[in-house]
Write a structure and sequence with these properties.
Elements (H helix, E strand, L loop, with lengths): L8 H5 L6 H16 L15 H23 L6 H10 L8 E3 L5 E3 L6 H14 L6 H9 L16 H16 L20
Antiparallel strand pairs: 1-2
Helix pairs in contact: 3-4, 3-7, 4-6, 4-7, 6-7
Length: about 200
């Protein structure tokens, strides 16, 4: 199977359906300088300046590759656009989540310490940019990082879109946590800071 091309961010955003495509582009344009400086996490993945957006760019490319593979196996009950929208927004709180402490380390702001606080911030940011989600997209955004305290053995909590996005996020954060590489990334076209 030929290796899929690592797509530039603009090409990936073009795959998101309107009207959300325009809003996602505006979110990027309004906050580009901030996105270029924020880490992907304090320690566990893409923990370098600009790592936040390297992580987002990475999960979008992983989604394109996995969607094509999965769709060859069986029909998927969501579109590639749905997955890209959820993944583009899944960590949108991170640029505003941390403050630099006196020890020189990043610390969570008190207003964003819990997953519920972070999800509420995400929804406010989406409303600010006029991004509207379907019920499946809301479910995907809520459970992209797993079901946590909402898990139930009696009912399915996260839907198929959420599960797919969780796969993409986990691949980036736990398998390829140090990618894209600074130079010579094995995935042709990948590299840090290529927004």
């Amino acid at each position: 199977m030929p290796q899929p091309r690592y797509l530039p961010l603009e090409d990936l955003l073009c795959l998101i359906d309107e009207p959300n495509r325009t809003s996602c582009r505006r979110l990027l344009a309004d906050n580009m300088e901030l996105f270029r400086t924020v880490q992907g996490s304090t320690n566990n993945h893409q923990a370098w300046p600009g790592g936040y957006f390297d992580h987002v760019h990475e999960v979008l490319n992983i989604a394109v590759a996995l969607y094509a593979l999965f769709a060859e196996l069986r029909p998927l009950p969501f579109s590639l656009s749905d997955a890209l929208l959820v993944l583009y927004l899944h960590d949108v709180e991170k640029p505003w989540k941390y403050e630099l402490g006196p020890d020189g380390q990043l610390h969570h702001l008190p207003s964003q310490r819990t997953k519920a606080d972070q999800h509420a911030f995400r929804l406010r940011k989406l409303a600010e940019y006029g991004i509207e989600l379907t019920a499946d997209q809301h479910n995907g955004l809520k459970y992209v990082e797993g079901e946590h305290d909402d898990y139930s053995s009696r009912q399915r909590v996260s839907g198929p879109l959420a599960a797919f996005c969780h796969l993409c996020d986990t691949a980036s954060a736990r398998i390829w946590f140090a990618h894209p590489a600074v130079t010579d990334d094995p995935w042709a076209g990948a590299g840090r800071g290529k927004f």
